[in-house]
Design goal:
Number of strands: 5
Number of helices: 5
Helix content: 55-70%
CATH topology of the largest domain: Helix Hairpins
Distance between the termini: 88 Å
Order of helices and strands: HHHHEEEEHE
Largest sheet: 5 strands, antiparallel
Radius of gyration: 25 Å
Shape: elongated
Number of domains: 2
CATH architecture of the largest domain: Orthogonal Bundle
Length: 173
Amino acid sequence: MGGILQELQTLIIQTVHFLPRAVAGLVVFSIFWLVSAVLKYTIQRIGDITALNKKEVFNLIGRLVKGVLIVFGTMMALGKMGINVTAMVAGLGLTGFALGFALRDVLSNFLAGALILIYRPFKVSDRIIVTGLEGIVTDIDLRYTTLEAEGKKILIPNSTLFTNPIQVIDTQK
C-alpha cells in the first residue's frame, strides 16, 4: 500500500512540474495558430482586392503560410514543453525531401500555373501555339491550361507552357 501511495505522490509531483511547461507550450501554439489565421486571411483579402484575374494563387499562398506556421508552432510548443524535437525536425526534412521528389511533376505544374497566373503571358480567349498544339485558351488553372481546337479539348500541363516557347496568335481585347 505504501508503494502505491509513493508512486501516486511521485506522479503528482511530476505533473505539477510539467504543468507550467504544458501551459507555455499551449500558449506558444495558440499564438502561432492565431498569427497563421490572420496571415492567411490577410493574404486572401489581398488576392480579393488586387487586379489579378485569379485569386486562387493568393488562397494557395495563404493556406501554405498557415500550414507552415502551424507546423513551426507545433515544434516550438513541443520544445517549450521539454520534448526533444530534433529527431522530428530531421524527420520532417527527410519527409519533405521525399515528397518533393515524388511529386516533382505535380509541383512543377502547380508552380508554373501560379507563375502563369501572375505574369499572364496569355489570357483566356487568346489563340496560342505551344509544342505543335494550337487552340483557343478556355481556362487557366494551377495544373493545366485548357485549349479548344476543332471541337477538341486539349489539356496542356502548365510546366510545358512555362518551359516551351508560346506563340500568341490572336489576342482578344
